[in-house]
Amino acid sequence: MDLPCGAMLRATPGPPVCLSTPRLRLRAALFSSPRVQGPPTFGFLLDIDGVLVRGHSIIPAAREAFRRLVSPQGQLRVPVVFVTNAGNMLQHSRARELSALLGFQVEPDQVILAHSPMKLFSQHHERRLLVSGQGPLVENARAYPSGASCCEVLPRPRGPLGFKHVVTVDELRAAFPVLDMVDLERRPKTTPLPRNDFPAIEGVLLLGEPVRWETSLQLIMDVLLSDGNPGTSLASAPYPHLPVLASNVDLLWMAEAKMPRFGHGTFLLCLEAIYRKVTGRELRYEGLTGKPSILTYRYAEDLLRRQAARRGWAAPIRNLYAVGDNPMSDVYGANLFHRYLQRGREGAEEGKPRPLAAQSCVSILVCTGVYRPPGPGSPGPAQGGEEPPFHGHRDFGLSPGLMEASHVVSDVHEAVRLVFQKEGWALE
């Protein structure tokens, strides 16, 4: 559903919100006297690209938002975590970048990358995995430093993911040069001797879009079709295939360009289509992390709870506000998690259930990224009542109601003002 920025959609939690004069009502509420503030009982899940930054440039509204969120002493007034579907950087590097842009100290454990919840997949940490993506792949995937634990219910968020044995696509290509044949310039000039001393691959770890898609697609397929022994050939493709873990299913994302760019979801779509065409079967995932997966929101809720505990805020964090620019990942994920909370499910890690303190997750869509409200010259609805194309991942399915934001606002500053008004907090 397309509405102008600043309009309000039906709120997922609570009664419908009038569309007529939301800005006037918000403005009036902002000048009313707030109730006396105690410890916060709410927190923010903020997307980064398209909400706080575009490429390497900060969106001006983000500075204004953090003037509201940060006290004169440089402390956050409420719990905040940054939830991004990017993953081609280290957690502490992203925290350092955000600190410079926003003007206050962002800690690494406030940043959730798309692959961060993979720390929970400890059953795969001992496997030898082919890892695909770009940036500091090995640093992100490797095991915890000596003395740290990767077997907690929710591991401490600092540090890498806990996978102890990873092989990059470049390392696999170097071991088997004849596998990569698309680029004529990179083909081997002579036929190398076959390798029989290369340990078998036991799974595939997809952390983000690679640079050379044709190479990664070919070698991932080789691993899956050979049951982890790409130097050999099997009479038929094994099924079920080796475990595949993937993070970030965004089809598109917003950078400096006027139109969205391909995301890792586009790469996964290519891999799934190739696997289905070659084998006649569906590629299956052992786990998908990043928005809109419930696991990612549970992980974020846990970090908000820990952050509040460190600050000495005893009141439980009941209301979560997820601010994003992508209806399919940010809005869909927040509404999916809200539905999960409303159904009263209790999450479980390592077979130990723990009730979540959060009671609601409110989706707030901003107009500074992927989402663009219809303008005066925008085309009307498709003829014949056709639905708009579904940009989500196939494993999450199409549920149009989950793509309707609780609120649509112009930018993150307006989102913060809205939340403070709803929670009765002063705009200091």
Automatic annotation (TrEMBL):
SUPFAM superfamilies reported in the protein's UniProt record: HAD-like
Q: Where is this region: Disordered?
A: 375-396
The regions listed as transmembrane in this protein's record are none
Sorted alphabetically, the Gene Ontology cellular component annotations on this record are: mitochondrion
Gene Ontology terms for molecular function? hydrolase activity
Q: Which InterPro entries match?
A: CDP-alcohol_PTase-I, HAD-like_sf, HAD-SF_hydro_IIA, HAD-SF_hydro_IIA_CECR5, HAD_sf
State the source organism's domain of life. Eukaryota
Question: Which Pfam families did the record assign?
Answer: Hydrolase_6
User: GO:BP terms for this protein?
Assistant: glycerophospholipid biosynthetic process
Task: Please provide the record's keywords in A-Z order.
Answer: Hydrolase, Signal
Family that this chain belongs to: Belongs to the HAD-like hydrolase superfamily.
This protein's name: Haloacid dehalogenase-like hydrolase domain-containing 5
Q: Whose protein is this, by species?
A: Camelus dromedarius (Dromedary)
